[in-house]
Amino acid sequence: MNSSNLINEGLALMGFGMGFVFVFLTLLVVMTTLMSRLVNRFLPEPVPVPAKPRAAAAPAAGAGDQEQLVAVISAAIRQYRSRHKQ
Amino acid sequence: MNSSNLINEGLALMGFGMGFVFVFLTLLVVMTTLMSRLVNRFLPEPVPVPAKPRAAAAPAAGAGDQEQLVAVISAAIRQYRSRHKQ
Amino acid sequence: MNSSNLINEGLALMGFGMGFVFVFLTLLVVMTTLMSRLVNRFLPEPVPVPAKPRAAAAPAAGAGDQEQLVAVISAAIRQYRSRHKQ
Amino acid sequence: MDKLINLFVSSGIYQIQWGQAVMIVVGLGLLFLAIKKNFEPLLLVPIGFGGILANIPEAGLAFSAVENALHLGKPELIAQIGQALGIDSVDPKVIKQAYASASHSAHNAAAAVAMDGGFNNGMLYNFYLVAIASGAAPLIIFMGVGAMTDFGPLLANPKTLFLGAAAQFGIFATVLGAVGLTALGLMEFSIQDAAAIGIIGGADGPTAIYVASLLAPQLLGAIAVSAYSYMALVPMIQPPIMRALTTPEERKLAMTQLRPVSKTEKIMFPLVLLILVAMLLPDAAPLLGMFCFGNLMRECGVVERLSDTAQNALINIVTIFLGLSVGSKLSADKFLDINTLGILGLGIIAFGIGTACGVLMAKLMNKFSSTPINPLIGSAGVSAVPMAARVSNKIGLEANPQNFLLMHAMGPNVAGVIGSAVAAGVMIKFVG
Amino acid sequence: MDKLINLFVSSGIYQIQWGQAVMIVVGLGLLFLAIKKNFEPLLLVPIGFGGILANIPEAGLAFSAVENALHLGKPELIAQIGQALGIDSVDPKVIKQAYASASHSAHNAAAAVAMDGGFNNGMLYNFYLVAIASGAAPLIIFMGVGAMTDFGPLLANPKTLFLGAAAQFGIFATVLGAVGLTALGLMEFSIQDAAAIGIIGGADGPTAIYVASLLAPQLLGAIAVSAYSYMALVPMIQPPIMRALTTPEERKLAMTQLRPVSKTEKIMFPLVLLILVAMLLPDAAPLLGMFCFGNLMRECGVVERLSDTAQNALINIVTIFLGLSVGSKLSADKFLDINTLGILGLGIIAFGIGTACGVLMAKLMNKFSSTPINPLIGSAGVSAVPMAARVSNKIGLEANPQNFLLMHAMGPNVAGVIGSAVAAGVMIKFVG
Amino acid sequence: MDKLINLFVSSGIYQIQWGQAVMIVVGLGLLFLAIKKNFEPLLLVPIGFGGILANIPEAGLAFSAVENALHLGKPELIAQIGQALGIDSVDPKVIKQAYASASHSAHNAAAAVAMDGGFNNGMLYNFYLVAIASGAAPLIIFMGVGAMTDFGPLLANPKTLFLGAAAQFGIFATVLGAVGLTALGLMEFSIQDAAAIGIIGGADGPTAIYVASLLAPQLLGAIAVSAYSYMALVPMIQPPIMRALTTPEERKLAMTQLRPVSKTEKIMFPLVLLILVAMLLPDAAPLLGMFCFGNLMRECGVVERLSDTAQNALINIVTIFLGLSVGSKLSADKFLDINTLGILGLGIIAFGIGTACGVLMAKLMNKFSSTPINPLIGSAGVSAVPMAARVSNKIGLEANPQNFLLMHAMGPNVAGVIGSAVAAGVMIKFVG
Ligand code: NA
Ligand code: NA
Ligand code: NA
């Protein structure tokens, strides 16, 4: 590679690189701000979850958890397969 | 593999499997019970071995330990070789 | 290998081996003694370095450290290259 | 400008496939269950996170060099890989199938071509090779579990081993269920698949992962997720079954206090178990051998520092990589399959049947035993240590607030671990 | 007598080359800086020691089996290695070059010939293969760093992410500097080399090592030494630049107190970041994925034992081997090169430009922001956590003894870690 | 029915060979010595347990894929393996011998055939490859030992290094003994075997394992068991020799108090030792390099977290796998050999001669030294840290209850570690 090519590559890398870093971090600012707002509106000041002993915490799981688990995954699979009919 | 074959395989696996699990655990019950009886008869209520500092514990080893070590291993080797004469 | 050869090898290994071990450890005695003398003369009774919290310790590095780093390494490279001119 | 387009074209937004998006949501769902619902978080946090990583479009973290080359490589390279595998096709899908069933040598030849072409194994794929394909991680975790297990209650009442045996019926019933579903044409499980699925009923994570990695690696993700999820759900799954199969009188039954167990007995037990394994079922030797080794380190009292490390630093390190490696099997093409639903369904059936058989066995033993046996401790035979024993205790306390069954239930509970490892050995022996 | 001569002829004293002696002194110098001047000792002690080991004459600890065979083997063996690499020469130097650029298969073929001839990889070379060439060690350390990172200050003031972005300009300016030096004929860097050198400006050790291992493994030693040395020198490099670019009034600026951040936000943040990486820059997925995973383990509160291990036993073990492996790249033939000087020079420029851009960005943001932003926190955007934030705090206290900037500077400080990992992903994408 | 028969035919009870049964008993014996007699339990518990695992019939845990294929494979597969090794025979025994002495490439070719045939390395064999064949485990343990070693007493009185040198005579006398036994036709040891056996006299476990893995891997099991057993027996072996060679007056001799040693000296010492190794004996560089690295981490005071990890989590993890790997060499076909008895016999002679030479050297030095040297500290030169130093102290106290020799004996004790590592380097250099 001759040297002007190399310099061009360097300039391109700088341009794209800094551009991408700014775009990425800007999006991160936006998404983080949004996330914080949503969390503070819909899950406001959550009672600080003390690391409860697990024995106590586990049974607290709602009775519907297992149906929920299967339901969620089966919905996912159904939707996936409906798109990928062979 | 056709499906009846597969079912047969499943049934065989279940039969042998559960059978083996029960045989194995029954033997374990027998051996464990036997072991506990032997231990409690011949090594009754061993003075609870406090994790002695090793310096103290090591010299407690009987003076015959080294002969014992060599004796046991050489007996083993002798017996083995007497069987496997080439 | 016939057995007298093997014995000779063993004797040679013993001679060279013990010789080398003594030479090595003698040199280590000499160098250690020398090192201790140098340390005790030129870096006498160093104020016991308490494991300072790093935050405090780091800024204590003299201001010339960075020039020093580059200088030392560049001197090394220069000297190396002057010898290895292709 | 080319570069900008290139950047966008190879970005996740442009390239993401529907399945990957779905699986990222599934991964987030597992994290939610682990973090907010306390579903076995030690495993499900790494598994869920690994599942998300595995589905990042274009990153190929969960794929081997060959898979990455087939996805991104030029046609000539793909054709070369096909040749290395001994097939003529240039269709990546065909080649991928051939690769999945290739012999060790053909596998290596294909990998060499892919690497010569500049492709590499993804990070998670390497973790999988080292942690799971080698068999090491589940065995090391089992050693740690052994170092955490107290066989005292079992030694005080060895008969409870029968409860650990009975509860394994869930495993084999599930095998039958899996082959039944296949016979009915609803699923497509081989006998190996069925055996690996059945082991979910053993309620023992490392055993399930070990067996699945040997018998049905392509199902490993679904099997591990299912096993750990249902273990977390034991407090929901078991009580109704236990109540249905027992009368209030039976549940009130008080058991006689356990005799003290001497140190020597505890040291001897892992050795007795090991000898029995050596004599009867060599195929269970890796699993139960490491388990007994961990337990011997715990009980012998002269290697505390090794025992501590096995229970802490080592098991934690291995858990992190085991979890991420299992997550690597949650890539959309492997997980989003009707079989996964079958596995989830069969898994819960296995737990239910195992629980029921344990309770029924306890009722039977109570009939013939000189000392009373509360049927509620039978359900602990499925293992899921120590959750199942706690469930027995809780249901017992509901019936009789003076009746503490916890220590009594720990016997069948640890017996269940042995029982499912034995069942695993039988599976490996017969269909491995 | 033969043996005695043989012993002397193969001893270090007889065989040492000038370059090896110089590098042993350099290794001792690094140890001096680490131990007496507290230059990032956790890395520079193993690196310096590894550097000495790598230069022990005749020991070949840092060399592969092939390199050792080329150095010590008989002519026939050397010729065979040449044939395995597909070249006709019997000149070890020519063969060595061919080996360095050989394909995966040719590499393996040469290694097989060397091992058949009785040569083996050196100890440090094996460490390098396992720790760095596999990519594992920097990623595991990054996971540990994630587990040690508190994103609270960043979440309280997300705008500070822009400071972390601006400071990455040092990276790309350095790339330009490296290609400039090459264009002027002073150095010989490829664009890959330039990119790897630029990452020094990210002030983040594991990221620099990860990128260098992918783009320019032959420069890895110099890049790692440079990165860690300058990170240690941050308290010397940054203050003059910060003072030059700010007025005393600006430095006195007090910032409003940070709002409290909820647990849920902290749990969500690594997931938000992960999704963004997944959508926009898959090439940064290994680095930022492991970082986010570590942070999620820290914040989720249900896997403390894994988080503890990631922050202690695991990261320490990996650091030991990472350091020794980096040291293996300090062998004289790789390190004593004019390029190393270029890397050292460019590295410090990168730090300076990054610092300056961070400060200038903070001044700009202060103009448009509703709440005041002290420009001194901009310099923390280069990362070098937590040293750069401490520098911001210290310079701030000099100007206004009531003004504690530490927590405010932690936001850009951790943002700088994300920023340089993103920059690393871009580099890998475009020139990898 | 077939399956039942199959299960029984492949069970341990049916298949066990006499040798395996014997070795299981030997393994139980080692566990007994470790647990009840406190014989170096940290190593002998894993070694003994590994020995049992290695002898489980049909499990093949200690065998490579090729060995397993030769034992269990069909005749065609066995013939193919023979071809891969370049021999025409179909006799598994002949093929096994060819495999044991095959070149690296032939070894790999045979392994590929075996794996294509569905056979895999056993678990313990894999542990052995990673831990010992790679050389890593003994070196990492030596690093940890370095991090645990205080060279203060040695630095206060460097002359004691001569005692560490003299005690190595046991090593070389044993080499001579081994070749003598071979010359007499009683045993069949090559010069490599003899060298590896001699190292038992170094009374240093990791050094013995490292040397044996390089020079005589087939004897590794017997050498390691012998080394650790005799180290545990030091309190029995040494006292009679020490008493026989000294007069009561000599034993009463009081030594002058040791001067304090500065921090800087302690930091410099590992570097001085490293440089000397680099200049004189590159073959000892891996062993002594890692040892010095561990010691530098300990003394430099700036990397406590690395030093802690090297002394705890890391050394414990490696010890577990090192022990199991050594155990894998206790399979009946390797261990139950007349040579093993020779090794056990020679090992104890080595300890005895080393002890005697140390004491005699101390007596000699006492003649020429300005300060008094109690001959009892000479025996500590065999290493076996810290047991041998404690023995010196104990025998000294018997003669003179006011005379505490412990710290004086620590000097030769750690000198013995250096001495045997140097001897190991010489062995590797000359016969490796
Ligand atoms: Na179970
Ligand atoms: Na940065
Ligand atoms: Na020694």
Structural description of this entry:
The complex is a heterohexamer, with three copies of chain A (86 residues) and three copies of chain D (432 residues). Chain A has three helices and no strands. Mean pLDDT of chain A is 71; it is low at 47-64. The longest helix of chain A is centred in the first third of the chain and has 40 residues, at 3-42. The radius of gyration of chain A is 24 Å and the shape is elongated. Chain A has 86 residues and is an all-alpha fold. The relative contact order of chain A is 0.04. Chain A starts with a helix and ends with a helix. Helices cover 73% and strands 0% of the residues of chain A. Chain A has a domain at 1-44. The mean pLDDT of chain D is 92. Chain D contains 25 helices and no strands. In chain D, 73% of the residues lie in helices and 0% in strands. With 432 residues, chain D is an all-alpha fold. The termini of chain D are far apart. Chains in contact: A-D, A-E, B-D, B-F, C-E, C-F, D-E, D-F, E-F. Chain A binds chain E through residues 1, 3-4, 6-7, 9-11, 13-14, 16-18, 20-29, 31-33, 35-36, 39-40, 43, 45-46, 48-49, 51, and chain E through 154-155, 158-159, 161-162, 164-165, 168-169, 171-173, 175-176, 178-180, 182-183, 185, 190-191, 194-195, 261-265, 268-269, 272-273, 276, 280-281, 301-302, 304, 415, 418-419, 422-423, 426-427, 430-431. Bound molecules: sodium ion (3 copies).
Structure characteristics:
heterohexamer; A: 86 residues; mainly alpha; 3 helices; D: 432 residues; 25 helices; 73% helix; elongated; binds sodium ion
First-residue to last-residue Cα separation of chain A: 48 Å
The number of strands of chain D is 0
Low-confidence parts of chain D: none
Task: Give the overall shape of chain D, derived from the CA principal axes.
Answer: elongated
Whole-number mean pLDDT of chain D: 92
Largest sheet of chain A: none
Shape of chain A: elongated
Largest sheet of chain D: none
Determine Rg of chain D (CA atoms, Å): 23 Å
Assembly category: heterohexamer
> How many individual β-strands of chain A?
0
Mean of residue pLDDT of chain A? Answer: 71
Radius of gyration of chain A: 24 Å
